[in-house]
Amino acid sequence: MNPSASKKPGLIWLNVLVFTSTFAIAAIGVPLYAYFVGFELSTIIAAILAIGFCGLSITAGYHRLWSHKAYEANVVVRFLFAIGGAFALQNSILHWSSDHRTHHRFVDDNEKDPYSANRGFWYSHIGWMLREYYPQDYNDYHNVRDLKRDKIVMWQHNNYLLLALLTNFGIPVVFGLITGQFWASILLVGFLRLVVSHHVTFLINSLAHMWGTQPYNDQNTAKDNPIVALLTYGEGYHNYHHAFAFDYRNAIKWWQFDPTKWLIKSLSLVGLAKNLRKTPEERINKAIAKLQRNKTCEKLNTLSIPNKEEALLLIHQEYDELLHAMNTFYEAKKEWLEVTKDKLIDNVEKSQQAKRYRELKQSWTEQQKHWQLLIHQYA
């Protein structure tokens, strides 16, 4: 059924029941229990750890590992992410990845993007899962044929309902019986954990497409938002992600919060992950500069100012010079790295290459500063 048709598709009553009942119990039951009985620290810590396990299983597993193939992981890691994904109750890896790949392919297309942000916050956040908007595509996994060869993925997909029930009931029940905090565990580790896991993940589809900055790409609604990143284990740097979807990182600055990236890198350091894919620095810088040029020129074209044509010409000239300095520097950097690895090259040649590399780096740095001053001047 066409999602834009005037008649709304039928409700998916199981999803409606799950989302409304879990939210109601968490929103009403948790505060009442806290007021009349209180929660022990051990149960609170367990709930926080469970939320983290669910969240990272989605971000590092469902999203970056399986949907985008941004790295490869050991079978034990894949198994744990599969369990955590079932615990998070967001459908199987196969189904989630299929939806997400469709989202990236048709981002913001109201007819094809499963959770297009252009249809509003409610729809992209949760509404798309409450009605039969795409019944003909529900079991169409043509875009995840590669994942069908992953035994962990197919094992989880074929046993998803059982795994979801065992984890969502079993883990809170067992922890509650062990600690003597049965109802506290049911409420915190069970219901509150599930609701938080759901809605922080849903924020990536909704808020991360509506609120923030676009430093890398403005061809879709994806935004970089550090506040959303804090809630979603780094996924809030969504503009970068949509610009460079196959990068294992969502945040590239050292000060940006991306624990999913840190987890993946840590796994690689102990041999549990490999082939981490990174976007070349040169490509990132070119994307930033191109977007800055385009936005500045677009703004100038809307203004009635003297010497506008000269200003536009200057921006294009400076942009060309910036690209030339950038290309020259990164070529020199590549040559310098090759020289440092080659033990047969004598020290004189290495010294010459090092001097050239430093000079071009300085030139590139100065050109960057000059470009930023120019952009700010016309901004």
Written account of the structure:
This protein has 14 helices and two strands, in the order H-H-E-H-H-H-H-H-H-H-H-H-E-H-H-H. The protein has 379 residues and is an all-alpha fold. The chain has two domains: 13-274, no CATH class; 281-378. The chain has a two-stranded antiparallel sheet with strand order 1-2. The longest helix is centred in the C-terminal third of the chain and has 34 residues, at 308-341. The protein starts with 12 loop residues before the first helix and ends with a helix.
Q: What is the H/E order?
A: HHEHHHHHHHHHEHHH
Number of strands: 2
Principal-axis shape equals globular
Q: What structural class is derived from the secondary structure elements?
A: mainly alpha
Strands of the largest sheet, in order across it?
1-2
Which regions are unreliable across 5 or more consecutive residues at pLDDT < 50? none
Sheet with the most strands? 2 strands, antiparallel
Distance between the termini: 45 Å
Count of DSSP-assigned helices: 14
Count of structural domains:
2
Helix content: 55-70%
Strand content: under 5%
Write down the overall mean pLDDT: 94
Radius of gyration: 25 Å
Pfam family, one: FA_desaturase
Keywords: Fatty acid biosynthesis, Fatty acid metabolism, Iron, Lipid biosynthesis, Lipid metabolism, Membrane, Oxidoreductase, Transmembrane, Transmembrane helix
GO molecular function: stearoyl-CoA 9-desaturase activity
Protein name: Fatty acid desaturase )
